[in-house]
Amino acid sequence: MSISSRLPDAETGLPRDVIELGRHIAALPEELQQDLSECYTRVVESTKRRRRILNLVQEALAQLRLDIKYLTFDLDMTRRERDELRNREY
Q: What percent of the chain is modeled with pLDDT above 70?
């Protein structure tokens, strides 16, 4: 199995190996297709759900990084203002 076969397909958002599995299942006889298609559907749904969760986590991390930058800037400015006021008093 190559690494490129696991990359998501641009149109469906599913890994290529999952799409290939679906094609193989579609090529099977009807009675085998019915048994496997339910499992395949669950795999596809869980893959999409995981991808949505991963996107949400990535967005949350990006927002957290931005918030940390703002807080760090605010802290630096507050310290600078404090130091300036201390120097004025003495």
A: 86
